[in-house]
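Ticket closed. Logging final result for Peptidase S1.
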Amino acid sequence: MKNTILAAAALAAITSTAALAQDYSLTPTYGSYSLSAGFMPDPSELQITAGGTLDAASVGCAGTIANAPDARLNWGGGRMTIGARSNVDTTLVVNGPDGQWYCSDDVNGLNPALVFSASGQYDIWVGVYQGNNAPATLYVTEY
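Final structure:
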């Protein structure tokens, strides 16, 4: 009986954690975009509100983020950087075309950035390390 109760409690904990995970199948809050090598203007920028109510630790990252991606980038391939700038400490969470989760924090001061080269779909969240939501600029650059 005791083992059954412990097993049920463990299953409930796993199920509740999975329900809090970021959902890359949702429609991105700030839209979907396509870019290919040589895009102009460079950087391509998008004004967003960073942060959310979910702990990005559910995918191994830092900060709080929204459930739906902030943006979806369909990338044509070649080296590019995805980053964010803000007046607060921001983090970056990306689900790459390979299905893996990528995290960044404090690369350029308190701002995150990640370098990729594979073509495909990138679902992007900009988080806030501590505190409330904050205005931020999400950018993609080849420089």
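The mean pLDDT is 87. No further action required.
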